[in-house]
Design a protein that fits this description.
The chain is mainly beta. It has helices spanning 4-7, 48-53, 69-75, and strands at 19-25, 34-45, 63-68, 84-86, 92-101, 107-114. Strands 1-2-3-6-5-4 form a 6-stranded antiparallel β-barrel. It is globular.
Length: 116
């Protein structure tokens, strides 16, 4: 019998404005970086309320990305501070350290700052 988590496992793919992004896991020990596509990526600018709650860690224009956990598991990595992301428009983002897996292990919430 499937669990609730199994039932909703693909729900992160059912939203508007999804895009395929290129994710680069910056490996700090041997082997170099690992770059791979993430499909069904969902990016949102942080609201004024979210910015205030995050106490200066982020700035206007920063984005939270929701990324399927299964796609990271297939690569044997987890998102972490310093990783890089390139969206469908070619904008480069740096992961700032806010990487949170949801309660069901379905998607990662990853905070990013536009690369300068």
């Amino acid at each position: 019998m499937p669990t609730f988590a199994d039932t909703v496992a693909g729900d992160y793919q059912i939203t508007d404005d999804l895009q395929t992004i290129q994710y680069t896991s910056v490996v700090t020990t041997g082997g170099g970086n690992k770059s791979f596509p993430i499909t069904s990526a969902d990016g949102h600018d942080l609201s004024a309320r979210e910015l205030a709650l995050l106490g200066g860690l982020f700035q206007p224009g920063d984005t939270t990305w929701f990324l399927g956990a299964d796609q990271f598991a297939a690569q044997g990595v987890e998102p972490r501070q310093g990783d890089l992301l390139t969206d469908a428009a070619g904008t480069h983002w740096t992961v700032t350290g806010l990487c949170s897996l949801d309660s069901f292990g379905i998607s990662w919430e990853v905070g990013c700052t536009k690369a300068r």
